[in-house]
């Protein structure tokens, strides 16, 4: 067996200390990143004064298609993904089984609006205004 240098002997002697220290450091970093990404209690942090003023205005939330309902708490939420041009499908759902949902269930349609024309955007906002 080859002879160990003094550095290797010291390293072997303190291996457990290095292992525990490295483990503690790794867990500390993991906990920091886990808790750092949690949402803040103050939901207004990072908003400009104009955005905060708009958010306090109920009309702002009424004109926003993805607005949360601040008045009621829903224990159940149903999200339905739908194409922007599928108005008949959304109306069919509203007229059939969605009519029978209790008031404690929130129904929302998820519609991708990224590459829509101005006319399609206008149609979706009009539909949202009619059905909310």
Automatic annotation (TrEMBL):
The chain crosses the membrane at residues 15-35. The keyword Transmembrane helix applies. It comes from Magallana gigas. This is Hexosyltransferase. Keywords: Membrane, Transmembrane, Transmembrane helix. It comes from the Eukaryota. The keyword Transmembrane helix applies.
């Amino acid at each position: 067996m080859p002879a160990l240098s003094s550095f290797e002997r010291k390293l072997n002697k303190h291996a457990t200390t290095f292992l525990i220290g490295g483990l503690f450091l790794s867990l500390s970093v993991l906990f920091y990143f886990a808790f750092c990404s949690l949402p803040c209690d103050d939901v207004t942090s990072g908003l400009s004064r104009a955005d905060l003023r708009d958010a306090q205005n109920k009309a702002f939330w009424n004109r926003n298609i993805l607005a949360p309902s601040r008045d009621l708490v829903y224990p159940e939420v149903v999200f339905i993904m739908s194409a922007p041009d599928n108005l008949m499908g959304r109306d069919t759902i509203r007229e059939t089984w969605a009519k029978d949902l209790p008031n404690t269930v929130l129904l929302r349609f998820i519609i991708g609006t990224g590459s829509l024309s101005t006319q399609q955007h206008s149609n979706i906002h009009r539909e949202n205004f009619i059905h909310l």
